[in-house]
Structure prediction request, 278 residues.
Amino acid sequence: MFLKLDSMASKLVNPASQVGHPVPRMRKMLKTHSRSVPAIIHPWTRREKSADGVRPIHTIKVAEQSPGLVDDNKEINEKDKDNREVEQIKADLYQAVQVINRGIFGVPSAKKSAILGLVELLESQNPTPDPTLNLEKVGGCWKLVYSTITILGSKRTKLGLRDFITLGDFFQNIDVAKGKAVNVINFNVRGLNLLNGQLTIEASFKTASKSRVDINYESSTIIPDQLMNLFRKNYDLLLSIFNPDGWLEITYVDDNMRIGRDDSGNIFILERSQESET
Prediction:
């Protein structure tokens, strides 16, 4: 600081006047210049008068959020809220379909209405509105958790599904690349040393719209032979219940749940499975 002031003084003072009184003149210039230099105040500091004189008052400037950042945060929060709502609906739906054997032997009307209401709520928030354009989400193995298809009255009696034969899990394997679907229905026969068997139905499908596929039945088999012998007399009845011929509207699909409605008005709820039953 002193070097800068000395330099400034040397430029302002006449050289001739320095001969007689060099020191006092320089001191005078230093004093004069020091009074002209203002106090350094921080850009965010203001001065305020007080009983003690002038004192600096420090303030903090708060950065304002840009409108774009606010909008982005709002959108993220809304998505998180929607996701939580969907997960809660799914949890309620899973709870509703417990202990009803997938609905295959009938469901009380109040329970059926409650399930339908939850299904419609999920369908209204379908994260994949064009499922046939995103078939990678549809492909793979699925397990049936609920259906409005029913086996009641004389049908159930003829098929021996009251006490003699029980239904096991229902699986569906979808091969998107080949346009094939394989439905597997497992059975347990109590009277034959707990014989286990399965009905396998193979079908092909092709895209009909952004959310619908047309399905054509191709073939079916029952194994082992002992199970086929039990169903042989009523095999056509069995196929009429599980035959997938027609069209299917995929009304909801995410990473682990799929809902569909067929041309007969039936609803199917499936969850993704790691098993592959063929």
